[in-house]
Every structure is written in structure tokens, then in C-alpha cells.
Amino acid sequence: MVPEMPVAHAWPPEHLRLAVTAAGVALWAWNVDTDLFTMDERGFELWGLPWRDAVTFEELSAHIHPADRDRVRLAFAATRAVLGPYETDFRILIGEEVRWVSARGQGEDVGIVGRTMFGIFLDVTGRKHAEEGNELLAGEMSHRVKNLLTIAAGLTAISSRSAASIEDMAHELTERLTALGRAHDLVRPLPNGQGDAALLGDLLSVLLAPYDDMGAFKGRIRVAVERMGVGEGAATGLALVVHELATNSMKYGALSVPTGTLDLSSISDGDAIILTWLERGGPVVTAPDGAGGFGSKLVRRSVGSQLGGSINYEWSEGGLIVTLRMDRSRLSS
User: Fold this and answer.
1) pLDDT tens, per residue, the chain with 333 residues
2) Which CATH architecture best describes the domain 134-331?
3) What is the CATH superfamily name and number for domain 14-123?
């Protein structure tokens, strides 16, 4: 005896509506002849428009991000020839807010009824922000790995200049790499409950110790800054900036030669603290062409977002001078 096939459950319309609402899905219908869109309340809410019976495709297009507008128009025009389901992601502007929307439907006129096609809009802003964050993190990690390799090569060269034997060089290099590891830990936020990261002078000394032939305060790197605490959040941004500046100095600046020196000093200016990075005795430095690479962008982002300040570079004949202006309250928080 052949068993009976189960009958598909017919959901009541109110149940379907509850499921659609719970999923955050907006329903749309597009008349391919009149170019009119009809949407449910969720659709008009997503587009930041008051509800009405219908809206033209051109009216919706006016809210699409200018960089995506032509692409979306072509995509919708091509959907009728697309075989199978399609999905198009684009940005829309709601005032100053940018939202990512995914338009999904069925191509090749599948499901078309009375010259009307059906599909959904879905708010995918959260997913897009996560993807952008992952791309930024991947680029940042790649940049840090390249910097660490450059630093390791530079530390090897520094150790070889002062070591009397291979054993001494191995011991000294191990100490420097260990110090680098301690400094690199400061590039990560501290776990909750650990309080302030360090005093400003101590923090700078730990970060720069691996680059100095004799260790911070004793050799060619000199730190003279005011006594103040650096919060765990600001320590991350400051560590990124110092690592980037020190790496570039080892590549091109004062720390690339045995006779080069580096002085860090600070002054107060109202609610701000100004840190000056002064290189002397190195090769002639020149300003880079263009806006700089990923490292420069990373530094400016860290200074602006985490330290509430600005950074300025002066490519003088005597060497690089960097002026880092930081908000005192942001630095201590």
C-alpha cells in the first residue's frame, strides 16, 4: 500500500503576516508597464517615506545613494531576463543616515501576475557594517604583520652592531623581541577591571624600549613628558601611533642609522596635551607622495577616533618632527 503524501499546511494570512514582520521583510510589487511600486508599511518605513498607494521607481531612485543609483536601475531592468532568483544590494539615504537594502525576487518573469512582479526588500545594514569591519580588521592585521617583520629585521641589525659574539647577539635579540612582545600587548585593549594602562612616560618607554640600543631613557631615545595616567582605551590608540612612527623611523628615519636620536616631549595647552616626536641625526627625509598608505590612514583614524586629536608631520632638513595633539580627558579615559 502506497502511503499518502502529506498535504502542505495552508497558513492563515495573519500567520504569514506575523512571520514576515518578525523577519523584518518588506514586500513590494512592481508593474513593469507603469513602473509603479506598491509596498507594505514596512517597505515605506524602510525607505523613510510616508505610506501611499503607490510610488514610482524614479521616486524611489531619488533616495538611492548616488554611487549606486545607475547600477540599481540597470539591475532592475535586467531582472526580467535573469534566470532564477536574484539579489541586489545597495545603499539608500534617509536624511544623513545611510542604510543598506537588499532587493530580492525571481527573474525571467517567473511569478509575474498581470504584468506585476513581486519581491522583498530587506534591511542588511548590520551585515554590511560587519563585512566592512572585517575588511578593515583584515587590512589592519596584514599591515601589523608586515610591520612586525620589518621591526624584527631592524632589531636584528641593531643587535648585530653592539654584540661581541653570536651568543651575545642571540641573547640581546631575544631580550628585544621579548620587549617588543610586551609593547605589542599594549596594542590590544586591556581586559575589563584592570584599570588604567600606565603613566604616559612609562607607556612610551615600554613601547620604544625594543628600538633603543641602550633602552629608553639611557640611549638615543629620550622621553620627557608630564606625569599623567593613560586610560586603557586610549592606550590602544597611542600604542598604534607610536608603533607606526617607530617602524617608519627604523625604515627611513633617525632609528635607521646608529647615530640617529629620538626625543619625545610634551606641553600642556588648555584641555589638550601636545606630544612632540623629534628625530635628529638620520638620513634626509622627504614627504611621501599622495595621501600615504594604510599605516598613515590607520594613524589618523586612531588619533581622531580614540585620542580626540590631530597629528601633523613636518619634514625638516634635520629630521622628521611629528606633533600629536590629544584631548586630555580622552587620553585618561
Assistant:
1) 445 555 555 666 666 666 666 666 888 887 877 878 888 888 888 888 888 888 888 888 888 898 888 888 877 776 666 556 777 889 989 888 889 988 887 755 555 555 777 788 888 888 888 877 777 667 767 766 666 666 667 667 666 765 678 887 777 677 666 655 665 565 454 444 444 457 888 889 888 887 776 444 457 899 999 988 887 767 777 877 887 788 788 888 998 888 899 999 999 998 999 999 999 999 988 888 766 665 677 678 778 887 889 999 999 889 999 999 999 988 877
2) 2-Layer Sandwich (3.30)
3) PAS domain (3.30.450.20)
Exposure pattern of 245-263 as b/e (b: 16+ CB <10 Å)?
bbbbbbebbbbbeeebbbe
Q: What residues does CATH 3.30.450.20 cover in the chain?
A: 14-123
**Sequence ranges of the chain with CATH classification 3.30.565.10:** 134-331
**Distance from C-alpha of 42 to C-alpha of 322, rounded to nearest angstrom:** 52
Under 8 Å between Cβ of 16 and 9: no
Beta bridge partners of 266: 275
